Automatic annotation (TrEMBL):
It is found in: Secreted. This is Vitamin K-dependent protein S. PANTHER family: LAMININ G-LIKE DOMAIN-CONTAINING PROTEIN, VITAMIN K-DEPENDENT PROTEIN S. Keywords: Blood coagulation, Calcium, Disulfide bond, EGF-like domain, Fibrinolysis, Gamma-carboxyglutamic acid, Glycoprotein, Hemostasis, Hydroxylation, Repeat, Secreted, Signal. One of its GO terms (molecular function) is calcium ion binding. Pfam families: EGF_CA, Gla. InterPro entries: Coagulation_fac-like_Gla_dom, EGF, EGF-like_Ca-bd_dom, EGF-type_Asp/Asn_hydroxyl_site, EGF_Ca-bd_CS, GAS-SHBG-PROS, GLA-like_dom_SF, GLA_domain.
Length: 258
């Protein structure tokens, strides 16, 4: 009796198992149409910053995918309209190699130049020493002696109160720099300050005896003994003595002191 009841019970349990499996497979199949199809490299792509080369050049990217690449809204808003322009110029086969357009001749260059604000560099070649890329912006790094958003303006250190050259006599402005100059009788020290030249010390024989060399700011003077005057052409001390002659008018006798 037990054996007769066991067979129908076993068949019933087997049938229920098949029905449950069929129901499970149906739900699993249906879920494939409801779930998002992820890419093969999803383990790496979902966990780190998107790759511009892979997402938007080798493949086409939408605006949301572009935002995942840049991870900020301003740069996404800057990038995506220009990216669409690159696609229109290259993906559809429009040839612009012989045109006057500034669009690069291949898609890869076109797209990469959008995301890098410093390629090509917008900064002045003369005044900048570098360019820093930002979020849909750039910053030019100026050389010393230059200013402006693009480092295009030479600083006139000779007249600009914000960038004083510091020359204490003459100043000559040159592109990106300046040059201090001195009046006669001075020499340039530390490229900024003018210092008096001591001609008496540098040239001990500049005055003929009995004249004595006396240094002064920017010049020197040969001083003769009292009653004498130095003549630079002859480099001598010349004097005059007053003589009174009873038989003639008073007059001066000129002589030279040596």
């Amino acid at each position: 009796m037990k054996r007769a009841l066991g067979r129908p019970l076993a068949c019933l349990m087997f049938l229920v198992t098949l029905l449950d499996a069929d129901q499970f497979l149906s739900q699993n199949t249906a879920s494939q149409f409801l779930s998002r199809h992820t890419r093969a490299n999803t383990m790496f792509e979902e966990s780190k910053k998107g790759n511009l080369e892979r997402e938007c050049i080798e493949e086409l990217c939408n605006k949301e995918e572009a935002r995942e690449i840049f991870e900020n809204q301003p740069e996404t808003e800057y990038f995506y309209p220009r990216y669409v322009g690159c696609l229109g110029s290259h993906r559809v086969g429009i040839n612009n190699q012989n045109s006057d357009s500034n669009i690069p001749s291949d898609l890869r260059t076109c797209v990469k130049e959008i995301s890098d604000q410093c390629t090509p560099s917008p900064c002045s070649k003369d005044g900048s020493k570098g360019c820093k890329d930002g979020h849909a912006s750039f910053t030019c790094v100026c050389k010393s002696g230059w200013k402006g958003q693009l480092c295009e303006d030479d600083i006139d250190e000779c007249s600009d109160p914000d960038f004083p050259a510091g020359c204490n006599q003459k100043c000559l402005n040159i592109p990106g720099s300046f040059h201090c100059m001195c009046e006669d009788g001075y020499f340039l020290n530390d490229n900024i300050h003018c210092v008096d030249v001591n001609e008496c010390l540098l040239f001990p024989s500049i005055c003929e005896k009995p004249a004595k060399c006396v240094n002064a700011p920017g010049m020197y003077e040969c001083q003769c003994p009292l009653g004498f005057k130095y003549t630079s052409t002859s480099r001598t001390c010349d004097g005059e003595i007053y003589v009174h002659d009873f038989f003639s008018q008073p007059h001066f006798i000129q002589f030279c002191c040596s």
